[in-house]
Design brief:
142 residues; alpha+beta; Thiol Ester Dehydrase, Chain A; 6-stranded antiparallel β-sheet; two-stranded antiparallel sheet; 8 strands
């Protein structure tokens, strides 16, 4: 639930948080909010030569950054944007390379407590829908 003092969550407000809350190099990823629900958000990471390594494969660092960023927005959809938070743990498994297509990042809150939030992220090819990366996270609410 969103606190009464928080503005309603929308695709536009979440997109605005990408510009307001995150470092310029995270903003340079070009993440786009596609959809959200309570405790869940889906972002698109556009394919880019700047984020690719040999063979046109999306680099793992970009996937991890996108996953971490998506989870923050998923937490916002559940708790509102008035809660400062920080990543405590990000465990990432790369399942297969992604090349020649955008990535779709779906982050879900698994459990939100008073001090900790646990989440899961799945990164898939935006065109073929095949899973390329799975991550689990823990965030501390400050």
């Amino acid at each position: 639930m969103t606190p009464a003092s928080s503005p309603p969550v929308s695709v536009e407000s979440l997109q605005g948080l990408l510009a307001a809350w995150f470092a310029p190099w995270v903003q340079a990823l070009g993440l786009q909010v596609e959809s959200f629900a309570d405790g869940e958000v889906t972002l698109r990471l556009p394919q880019s030569d700047q984020l690719s390594r040999v063979g046109g494969m999306l680099c793992g660092q970009a996937m991890m950054s996108a996953a971490d960023t998506a989870m923050v927005l998923a937490i916002v959809t559940q708790l509102g944007d008035q809660r400062p938070m920080t990543t405590v743990q990000l465990n990432t498994s790369f399942l297969k390379p992604l090349a020649g297509q955008d990535a779709r990042i779906t982050a879900r809150v698994v459990r939100a407590g008073k001090n900790l939030v646990f989440g899961e992220i799945d990164i898939t090819g935006a065109t073929d829908g095949r899973s390329v990366c799975r991550a689990s996270t823990t965030y501390a609410l400050l």
